User: Fold these one by one.
Assistant:
Number 1:
Amino acid sequence: MNKATRQAYGEALVELAKTNDKVVVLDADLAHATMTSIFKDAYPDRHYNVGIAEADLVDIAGGMSTTGLVPFCSTFAMFGIGRAFEQIRNSIAYPRLNVKLAMTHAGITVGPDGGSHACIEDIALMRVVPGMTVVVPADANETYACVAAAAEMDGPVYIRLARMATPVFEGDMVKPFTLGKANVLREGSDVAIFACGIMVAEALKAADLLAEQGVSAAVINMHTIKPLDADCVREYAKRCGKLVAAEEASTIGGLGDAISSVLVDGQLPAKLIRVGVQDVFGQSGEPEELMREYGLDAESIVKKVLEA
Amino acid sequence: METRQLKDLCREIRMDVVKMITEAGSGHPGGSLSSVELVAATYFTQMNVDPANPKDPDRDRFVLSKGHVAPVYYSVLAHRGFFPVEELWTLRKLHSRLQGHPDSKKLPGVDVATGSLGQGVSLAVGMALGAKHQGKSFHVYALTGDGELQEGLVWEAFMAASHYKLDNLTFLVDWNGLQIDGTNDEVMSLGDLNAKLRAFGLDVIELKDGNDLEAVIAALNTPATPGKPRCILAHTVKGKGVSFMENQVGWHGKAPSKEQCAAAIAELEAAKNE
């Protein structure tokens, strides 16, 4: 079964609201795209539309949080994180307000809308803000779990969500979710692929393809980019010596950079292969085409591993 | 507090402002002095706050959207009892709770951190909306500058305040006419502000003299118009009370010398018997 993490987000909010009466949801005229409309249908008096005004979205959420509410605010990542960056920095993170930023349509798989909407900078922008927790859920189940975990903790959280429907993991691929704790989905000894978000499914496919070539690949779901599970990185750096960081975002400032910092700080002699958008903008196209075009699909991961 | 007493306190606050900024060696005297009556009257005649319980969920809120006038805010908070007056002299110093712009993580009484212009207006809208959402009766006040109204976010926030019928919200506009690079009209004309604010759905009270304490109190005491956010549009004098600073754009963000400080204090002391 395939489901977009944004769809799961809307459903997760409804579940959360049943037990947490402090939760309110804000949107900026995109409720039917971010899927907060699901929440609005269930709890119309707990959903606020601020109009096409992303800076206002973030600050109104900030103000509401100071009254004891737990606001989730959503729009497209490009505008919620991009346009409202400074509101997030100064009005949410600096006073450490309890606002959850759940932004959808992140990355190049926003698809036909094209490069103006394909936000590849959001992970880097949120990672650099002191005290920000950054989560990129891999599938619907992880989205349910991380929404609940975000509401549970006090402080700002960025949850990065995708437009495209992706596989929902089943069986032993479903792991308990703890913020800041990586989940090992597959063991391997030659290379360890650290992936987040929709890249986890690609990493699993890549591991299958690599196995056919006699390469044993571990796959680690690095759902929390900050705080990063550095112990896990160190462990696999020592075990495999060759690591892959796979993210559907710019290779600058994201998961790959976070992992490379762990390697450098620990003086670990591991090779790191970065799979991500290589300092270029996105463009229009179908998500699957774009994944190939920008070298993010499983085949591209395999090629990079075999070449390295 | 009696108006007579409060008037005297306003003079003391002005002296604090001048001394604090002199001691710090930097800061913003002009806009601090122009907004003394607006901030003091709000805290001493309107707001239900308890310095012993600064996080009381039902307290009234104040947002210093023009966060650079922290000196007037800190002086008012200290006199209101949130922290010792002696702490005022630590303004802008390393490890001080009195940051250059207010930090709600550090200083009791500060409801939310500000400093980046425009954002406080929107934060205040969120607070007032949060009160309405939870059926709480507290009131939210936000002080903005005039130049600050050039920020587009302010108008997004006004729109939302009006849309959500936030009659538990009062904006105070310190309209001293000057900003860093010159007069408002030289930098970016604000036009017919009263008409613009009314067009955005605010219930506007325009004060010819926003440094007239009685007039400010009367405006604050005016009962809210149901379903409408209030805006007190107050014409003030930048640098008010220190003759060499009054209406001088150069005193927006400059610390007085020791001699200038002494002259300002002498002038404010002399005003006591007026």
Number 2:
Amino acid sequence: MLDWLQRKLSRRQGLKSAGQLGVFGAIGAAAGIVTPASAANAKMAKGHAGHHRGENRTVGRVDHKRNGFDPHAILTDWDRGTLSTDDQGRRVRSFEISAIDKEIEIAPGLFFPAWTYNGRVPGPTLRANEGEHIRVTFRNAGSHPHSIHFHGIHSASMDGITGAGMVNPGDEFTYEFPAKPFGCHLYHCHAIPLKRHIHKGLYGAIIIDPDPELHPEHRDVALSRQLGSEENKHWQEMVMVMNGFDTNFDDENEVYAANSIAFAYMLDPIKIDPDRPVRIYLVNVTEFDPINSFHLHANFFDYFDHGTTLEPTLKTVDTVMLCQAQRGIIEFSFKDYEPGRYMFHAHQSEFAELGWMSFFKVEGS
Amino acid sequence: MSRANAYFALPLAALVALVALLIWLKPFDALAPGAPPVEALAFESVRLEPGMFRAKVRVDGSGPVSIAQVQVDGAYRTFTQSPPGPLGRLSSAELAIPYPWVDGETHVIVALTSTGAAFEHSIDVAQTTPDVFGPPARMLLLVGLLLGLAPVAIGLMSFPALRQLGREGTGFILAITVGLLVYLLIDTLGEGLEAAEGVLERFHASTLVWVVAIVTAAGLIGIGRRGDKPPEGLKLAGFIALGIGLHNLGEGLVVGAAFATGETALAAFLVIGFIIHNVTEGFGIAAPLTREQPTLINFISLALLAGLPALLGVFLGAQVVNPLWTAICFGIGAGAIAQVVIEITALLVRQNGTAKLAGTPVLGGVVTGLLVMYVTALLV
């Protein structure tokens, strides 16, 4: 009997709130069609009229100054290191990286006890040219042993694993390896336990630009990738490291983002000039979840898996899926597009709603 | 100052000095250098309005707790906190979270503090929390009456039948009543301890349930025996009605909360079970009256005393009560029941002697009472 009472009650409530919808609601009410769904819709509509519906985002603003890094600056602040020629005549590109324990604000008011390279997450985006010799001086100013394991081609002693370039707190090690193959790569700490050392923030991107002279069949493509060339200046390049943070250490991420700060590019969209093509160096270091993805709204792109080819490995797609440590280059254009905001995000809705949701703001040409 | 006073002052002064020293010198801070803050957060109640969650949270911790962000169903949501800012130890705030929640579905709210600790609350079946004076309230009134008053009144109608019994039969009936009440005692304590789980640890709510029960029982025994005369007859029936009434207040809270938290289907089923179950309670109240000449007014008063608290409970429960108060209510109920169990047992001893307590009529009655309650509880 009470079941019946309840039904009667919710029916009445449905009718009442449907009435507040005006003509549309009146038609529904007159027809006597009040399904649970329409009652719920009516309820939602009532909520809309009554007060603010709320949004899927974080509340407040992250203090980037206190963090010491800005997600918008990270997009393009390539670390070129210093270039010199050694006595063997090699062009040597030298970088300096320190591991530092640092609390960072990953969403407004939400702090994470991170381990960082150079005080930022992701670490500096190292950028070198194919054929150069890379030298990375690594100092461990943190509280645990750390290393840098570069995804690249190097000797066993340079691997950055236990017994090969593992650095105790206070110590230092120099990693040396040739800049090859060209592409979009990843570096990260390979200390054990691996999961903890990676998800605490010890990772970053290393980009090796192709040498146009070595790739005569795609010389123009290689030129466009070579940072500083006239061809390259036409492109709008940016790096995005897809990551997550498990703030309560239950092996599930509470925050997902591109470049660490939840919703950073949603609250402040990335400005895009429609007349210049866009190239994204995309890296996935999300821990705990086997895959992450990149989805672009209202547009399609070419994808170069690992960036190690000059011809796209996937053509005309709007979503790519990357496993942990997988990365690639995404190229597209907003030429002749209506100015406005164009969304991009992980197409795991869960990741998107937990912070990995962003906008490009296409400006008027 | 007399010598006796000085004896009391000495340990008191020493204690004050020790506490002052601990506060001033903070010797334990050295034991926990840079220890991460300990935080606790309890959702005391969540009210559902169309397009809106209103969650009342209370915090505890080694320092002030800052609620940084709120997730609903695994998505960050905008919210407003009042009062805003970091929350001091044991203080509470309301989180207003606009959300297009779906009628009849499950929603999960997570509050994340500045340290990244996550505290979760599940709304099992979402439904609008009834307004105090809205139409749902009228229905709750009906539920309260059905739950509390009606079954007790029906149970009291067994009075003429009970009167037909002789001395042995009366003892048996009283023993059954003890069984019924012991069942209710276990049940009430269990409910209280369950409610206590939702309370911040610092309140020691599960211990509090026991403490409140013991204090209530001791208090009622004291009141009942004023003038050195243990309660019998109408007075004892009154205390049984009070005990059952307080128990029903707790039950009402549960049913009301079930309605409020949207477990309506569950609540509707609960009511039917409770009604059948509670008829036995009325029977228990009538048991000590068999050798009295109660008036109709007496019966009405007893029914009201045992039944009306359920109505109040349903009403309060539907307004989403803080689990600490629910636990305390159950503690009071348990204490009141314990008192009548003790008094009826004492009456049986007075009437038949201690030896008879171990006899078949009494033991059989107690077991019958327990079983009847268990079997009727299966309907709940």
Number 3:
Amino acid sequence: MNRENNDHATLAGRFNENEQRVSWHDETLWWVRAKRDKAAHTLPEWEQLRAAASQIKSNVLSNLSEYLVQFEGRALQNGVAVHWAADAKEHNQIVADLLTARGVDRIVKSKSMLTEECHLNEYLQSRGIEVVDTDLGERIVQLAGEPPSHIVLPCIHKKKEEIGELFHQHLGTPAGNADPQLLTRAARKDLREKFLTRRAAITGVNFAVAESGEFVVCTNEGNADMGAHLADLHIACMGIEKIIPQRKHLSVFLRLLARSATGQPITTYSSHYKKPRKGKEIHIVLVDNGRSVQLGRADFRNSLKCIRCGACMNTCPVYRRSGGHSYHTAIAGPIGSILAPNLDMHKYADLPFASTLCGSCTNVCPVKIDIHDQLYKWRQVLVREGHTTTVKKMAMQGMTFTLSNPRVYRFAGKAGRWLMNKMPYMVNNKWNTWYKQREMPEPPEQSFSEWYKKNRER
Amino acid sequence: MSSREKILGAIKRSQPPQCPLPGLDSFLQDNAHALQQYTEVLTSIGGTAHIVNGYTEIKEIVKQEYNDARCIVSLIPELPGVGTETAYHDPHDLAMADLAILPATIGVAENGAVWITEEILPQRVLPFITQHLAVVIKREHIVPTMHHAYEKIGNADYGFGVFIAGPSKTADIEQSLVLGAHGATSMRIFIL
């Protein structure tokens, strides 16, 4: 990754070249956020639910190794195979080996942010296995050759006309037709054929229950179920933090998840997979990939409570106006910005700065993750560890020097006012990032301390 | 060292101090209007509810609403199927189902969902692959919230179970809601 050309600010700048599209993107996501508010406000016990969810997840983090062992034991008893992957590479190898051992070279996959994080599709393709993403939004970005830009709404950045054109090229829908109903029907027909002919299916996991060994997958489209129930082999990929202690705890999370994500009271399907069908196989891959490291960072471990609802993105003033792709990581937005630096501080050093620290993310988070506090704390870690750019570092050191020396401070103020008065072109230019998209303020006649002195004496 | 040992060891070293689990009993509030809420919520998520007096009434509605259905898979003895086989050993054979009629043991007022487990199904895929879905439930089986639903489910030992709330749907194209993504394109609930 070339930091200079592909950091969040640069990519957001590119997204902002089309002003109309930015406004449309912003308004669409705000509309989803408004639906979330409406759904949340219909439940008087909403805040108690959030508190309960957060507490359950705290308990999970305190007992994660024990719960994982318990989950593994129950799953094995249920006839489900369990695999452990330390990182993305091992996860991808396990999945590919399971498929090749059974002679499978074409599969269907439902939405799983973990497999995006691990870049599973690219890996399987390099081993000669064709992957068809079956969530409509994911299928659209797959056909476009792009990654998802939002964890719940993968193609939220695309206009229907662009989707119509893609479907015209790939699925033979009429040219120039951008009717969502018609396009969805075309995808349904095309993907039905895929469901009926593929022998293996991959799904993600929303929740895995330690006491029963079952796991729950939530979709609105029914694509996870169509894939899994028609296949001989079902591989479910999950991050180790998806564990919850008991079945009854599902009630809390299923009440919060869809309401926070889209404002629906629940997703259309909440499927509980416990045992494989007779003569068929279910394999679970438990993936660490940096999660145990994050668990050890006291300031950041709460990020592991995330249930991937996307509410923090929908509400984020920066995400809404910069687009998911500007975050250059599988999980965009505020939560992605506190997860990514854990995986690679250097590569993702820009992300915790892609925030106004307004705190709206923290307010909507259904599991009460202190997202904006963690963004602030990451900034300090990244600066301390030397991962910020030289320009930022020099600017910060200059500020520290100026603000801690009253004489220098007074001189700098005077010099600044003089410069803005006599040579405005020195500040009103493209090298001054504060001048971008806004006018510089009128320089005052005097500083406050000068004014105070004068008026006091009088 | 295997990845399993490595991961578990790393987690153990980093686990924070104990945090107790919260009690959930306070969420088990009664709702005298559960039936009314159920039908309202189901309608709002694209489903259709019929409060009926008996199977004769259901039969009439089925005849009226699905008169061009050539394959109706019914799992309810009182409601005969149409053009179906005695057993489905291969789930792919259910691709021709126009309508599936299933019984449900739990309905959830707050979100319009019904709970269905594998024991009653010829194949797990049936409620998803069928073009239309109809479910019959007794009114006394409608509970207020998900907490009540899991209390009823208890430690039941199913191989597969699912909450289904309305027809399959997507809004992936510019947030325009379209009913009928990959699963059933409509869902009708008969409340006895």
Number 4:
Amino acid sequence: MEGVGKSYFGNRVLANVNFSLKKGQILGLVGENGAGKSTLMNILFGMPVIQETGGFEGKIYIDGKEVSFNSPFEALEAGVGMVHQEFSLIPGFTAAENIVLNRESTTYNVLVEAFGDRLRTLDRVEIRKRAETAIDTLNVDLHPDMCVSEMPVGHKQFTEIAREIDKKRTRLLVLDEPTAVLTETEAAILLKSMKKLADLGISIIFISHRLQEILDICDTIIVLRDGEVVREFVPEKTDLMSIASAMVGRSIQGQSQRTQEDADRTSGEIILRVENLWVDMPGETVRDVNLEVHKGEIFGIGGLAGQGKLGIGNGIMGLYPSGGTVTFDGDVVPLNDPMAPLSLGIAAVSEDRRGVGLLLEEPIAWNIIFTALQVQNRYLRSILGGLVRIRDAAAIRDCAKHYIQALEIKCVSERQRVVELSGGNQQKICLAKAFALDPKLLFVAEPTRGIDVGAKKVVLDTLREYNRKNRATVVMISSELEELRSICDRIAIIDEGRVAGILPATAPSTEFGLLMLGKVQKTRERVTA
Amino acid sequence: MKYSLREQISHFLVQYAVPIIFVLLSIVAIPLSRFSTEYLVQEMVARLARDSFLVLSLLIPIMAGMGLNFGMVLGAMAGEIGLIFITDWNVMGVQGMLLAMIISTPLAILLGWMCGAILNKAKGREMVTSFILGFFMNGVYQLVVLYGFGNIIPIKNPALVLSRGFGIRNVTNLAGIRHCLDDLFSFNIMGITIPAATFLLIGAFCLFITWFSRTKLGQDMRAVGQDQDVAGSTGIPVERTRIISIVISTVLACYGQIIFLQNIGTMNTYNSHEQAGMFAIASLLVGGASVSRATIPNVFLGVILFHLMFVVSPMAGKYLIGEAQLGEFFRVFISYGVIAIALVLYSWRRHKERERARRSLRGAE
């Protein structure tokens, strides 16, 4: 392989990325969520989403020849293999069957003449032999006859990689966070196999959030930030800190700044105590979270996507199956019951604004009072001597008008349907809906996702003001570290479903960065899969 | 992962809940019905020969992840149309059966392809879609048989046609092919007649299914059945594979219906196919199959248990309460009830399994 050079101009997501990779080398690709790693790999792999959104700019060369893949199959033909974060395995098949999936060895039988090649008989012996060869190349302990659904995660990962090796053509292998789901011993084995593959002449692009691994095995390291290559490192001449700061250091615009008053704040007694919380939220699994939130503070929860930070709020609010102990203001909060936390005075603003947060087809006023009406029986008045209760239209209107004014919601009237509003204004309605409950504790998940800079500032300022004025406790969950640092008092970083550490917001961003990347070692119980 | 003995037992009970319930019911009902063992064994042998082929035709779509194919009703209709033709032309015996199969095969392929194409548009809701599709095609079938035959398609035999001159009579007499396959060669063991030719055919069919699951196409179907996205991402033509599985099932159901009717000897022109789907699916579920997993032993166990209940329950009802009507009611009750139970158990079982898998999430135990 001569080298892969690529540039991609103009677009916000990726701009002017250039790099080259030699035969048998390992390239480490690091960057925060949203830095453009996935887009870059999608381009390389010819994912249809790239074509659908207008193709890409720049050129890719493999072996000195310009290539542009229109589908993943073309990329496979050209020898580009990819192991995605989500496993692409058939659960009921054995390792061997998965390794040779759709490339099975077959033998001839008579019926082929009549019905075509798909009626060829499978050659089980040969399939097994091929699987064993691939597994031996990887040098891992994996039984070819083991069923995938019974495998620990690490073995699934090995099966995926073995499949790529079995494709004889594979010359470039992309591994997207292969170690994220592995235990440390498994990760170590994987890294060793990667080295072995590289020695066999296969080039590898290795994406990982675990910087130490990257430093250990890569020949070159590229740091992506906001769609650009910010630095290119050679592992011998760098260290963790400089990579971490290259990743997270960024300028923030339009966000509220900390004031002196913030620094002097003291927080009250513990209002929320979370012990051994696990939440089964798909893609955001919480494994074992312990934390304490003090009365009157703004508590931030950060971490990379998929590490479980969103699961915490949703789990406590009873939206996903969960377990553990949550104590609020002296009361134990029953889990798996959405009504319980609401009636105890805990409210939440969901990260899924349009799905969970709003009744899109209903007017603004209804959205704002909906939960208060359902949970607290407010905005109702009795008629017929208390026999029937109907909505109190006047009170609803007044309440809606109050919030529209207070939060600067841009709308025609309180009767306008929510679906017609912009993302920022929808978010403000979600906040108003939570405020209308007069909560003692408020969970806010990803409040600034997908809204413009101006609205971001209003949302953050509103939260801060609400916290100051009403002495309400706010737990804010966000992927944007700088945003958390600008408004929170303390920030917990979640990594692999556990609290990696809790730091005051004034701590330097590199320390947060290291926590996010799982660099700070913690005692990790082995989880049986 | 290790499970205690207690958990293993409860897992087994959950897994085989439906057959266990039926075995228990049979144990209670058989003595009540006062049937002789000989009679019951003869009855079961006859019903195994009659129904197994139809039930076996359900296996391939389950393999391809399309659930229980109520679309087999379409195949049954195709088979019946073939039978109407051979009765009209007066082709008798095994030759008649073969001719009926030959006539109905292209029709079954066409209907199966259509059904498969529609089911591809309704992924994840295959069962209810094919069920309703069966109702719809029943209307088309009635149109063709009630008006087309005698009007557009010439029917010579006046015994087949309604007195008004077109349309087939409610009951078609299949005397020409009655028991022709069963009696091709059969023998007696201890007074029980065994239709060996039919069983040979069923045996061949079982071998075919076993062989088929070892072909490339069978492997692809299993892959598609378990995860369409993954299968698609490795280049398996998912939709085409699904259509093929339905076509195979429909054609086999068509043959199954012909075998079924040659045993019965008369054809209920407008109703036979409706029952075919329902009874076949109920049998399979009674045998311990689920919407996503079914094996050949499930088929035979299911046919025996379901029909045992079917034969025994009216008489048991009669002797127990003095009312045969109640037993008749029980028949209908079980065939629908078992489908409902099996479907509910299926999702309950999945829930249980997910819960089991979730235990690993609790890092703090």
